[in-house]
């Protein structure tokens, strides 16, 4: 579909699964997809937050699915719940993730496994289950992984997170290679420094805050709403020939 068609970014009638949809970046992406026309299957461990109300406010439906992606046990149930709620699946946003901080000399197996299980293992197996649904539907589909600046950089004191997010970049390419011919687009978004609950401590540390903002060419922290355009683009027919790409949404951080 050519970009001269104003409906290129229209997602009316599509169904999107968004993990970690209750807060922060996940909530913003879920609401953006809903505003573009998607019904949302929101996956969270506990409370769904205000995301259902925000989705309803833009006129779309929300299915609340509770699942802990620390294991792959709920993966098939998530896809099944989406199909039961809305009849199909068109988009998966793998946003759920955790982080553990510890010096590499002291890093524990527990902190390694916890992060790898959520951020990489469950991401793969939920992608697999969703792609199988795309194949059953003979519909194609869109998978959008959430990578990180640490998919490109090393970071410090976050060994398992860096390993997992580097893995997300590689896995995005691998799945694109295998599934592109079946009209399944697999891409990723790598957010830069975003103003969310996870970065409150950094932003409240005046010295660290100043150091970070000084290195961002855009001169400000990102907002969750900065992911709205990119996620809609990657979920829509506008990106039908984009495969295996990780899109940095970072205010220019990686360009420095």
- CATH fold-level assignment: Rossmann fold
Architecture per CATH nomenclature, i.e. the level-2 architecture: 3-Layer(aba) Sandwich
Unreliable runs: none
Strand content: 5-15%
CATH superfamily descriptor? NAD(P)-binding Rossmann-like Domain
Backbone structural class? alpha/beta
Major beta-sheet overview: 7 strands, parallel
Q: Give the strand order, joined by hyphens, for the main sheet.
A: 3-2-1-4-5-6-7
| CATH top level class name | Alpha Beta
| Mean pLDDT rating | 96
| Series of secondary-structure elements, N-terminal to C-terminal | EHEHEHEHEHEHHHE
Whole-number total of structural domains = 1
Quaternary state of this entry equals: single chain
Keywords: NAD, Oxidoreductase
EC number: 1.1.1.127
Catalytic activity: 2-dehydro-3-deoxy-D-gluconate + NAD(+) = 3-deoxy-D-glycero-2,5-hexodiulosonate + NADH + H(+)
Protein name: 2-dehydro-3-deoxy-D-gluconate 5-dehydrogenase
Summarize the entry for a quick read.
The protein has 256 residues and is an alpha/beta fold. It has helices at 24-35, 51-57, 75-86, 109-137, 159-179, 200-204, 206-215, 228-235; strands at 15-19, 39-44, 62-66, 91-94, 141-146, 184-191, 246-249.
Question: Your description of this structure?
Answer:
- The protein is of the alpha/beta class and 256 residues long.
- It has one domain (15-195, 226-246): NAD(P)-binding Rossmann-like Domain (Rossmann fold).
- Helix content is 41%, strand content 15%.
- It has helices at 24-35, 51-57, 75-86, 109-137, 159-179, 200-204, 206-215, 228-235; strands at residues 15-19, 39-44, 62-66, 91-94, 141-146, 184-191, 246-249.
- Strands 3-2-1-4-5-6-7 form a seven-stranded parallel β-sheet, with helices on both faces.
- Strand 1, helix 1 (24-35) and strand 2 form a beta-alpha-beta unit.
- Helix 1 packs across helix 8 (228-235).
- The two termini are 35 Å apart.
- The model has no long low-confidence stretch (mean pLDDT 96).
């Amino acid at each position: 579909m050519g970009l001269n068609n104003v409906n290129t970014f229209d997602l009316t009638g599509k169904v999107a699964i968004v993990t970690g949809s209750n807060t922060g970046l996940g909530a913003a992406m879920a609401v953006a997809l809903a505003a573009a026309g998607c019904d949302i299957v929101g996956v969270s461990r506990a409370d769904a937050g205000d995301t259902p109300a925000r989705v309803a406010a833009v006129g779309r439906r929300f299915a609340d699915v509770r699942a802990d992606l620390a294991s792959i046990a709920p993966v098939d149930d998530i896809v099944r719940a989406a199909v039961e709620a809305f009849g199909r699946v068109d988009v998966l946003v793998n946003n759920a993730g955790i982080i553990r901080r510890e010096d590499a000399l002291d890093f524990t197996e527990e902190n390694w496994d916890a992060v790898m299980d959520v951020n990489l293992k469950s991401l793969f197996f939920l992608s697999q289950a969703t792609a199988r649904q795309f194949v059953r539907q003979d519909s194609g589909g869109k998978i959008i992984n959430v990578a990180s600046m640490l998919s490109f950089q090393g970071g410090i004191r976050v060994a398992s997170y860096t390993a997992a997010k580097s893995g997300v970049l590689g896995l995005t390419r691998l799945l694109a290679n295998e599934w592109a011919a079946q009209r399944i687009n697999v891409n990723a978004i790598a957010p830069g420094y975003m103003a969310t609950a996870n970065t409150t401590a950094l932003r409240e540390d005046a010295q660290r805050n100043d150091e970070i903002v000084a290195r961002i060419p855009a001169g400000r922290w990102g907002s969750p709403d900065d992911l709205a355009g990119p996620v809609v683009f990657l979920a829509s027919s506008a990106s039908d020939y984009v495969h295996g790409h990780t899109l940095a949404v970072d205010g220019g951080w990686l360009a420095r």
